[in-house]
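Case study 2.
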Amino acid sequence: MAGEGPEPPLLLIGAARWDDVMGPEHLDRLRRLRSLVAGGGRYDTTSTLLACFSGVGFSDELRACARQDRDVLLVGLADLYGGL
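Prediction:
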């Protein structure tokens, strides 16, 4: 329960899209979700990663966001299946 001790860390919040190029709007949704979870007081979100998984890739804007924010992780098909 909240307030009874240290909250467990929430390691990752993610979204996956198979047929959509992911953009900053997807990251904005993940940030809002992290904020809502943090406000609930049940989890420590100070180190929560925000992950976007895409089957077709990422916009240049989202790639720029990921380069500037160490909490953002972009995972494409090559990352998942590159060795196959």
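The CA atoms of residues 51 and 71 lie 8 Å apart.
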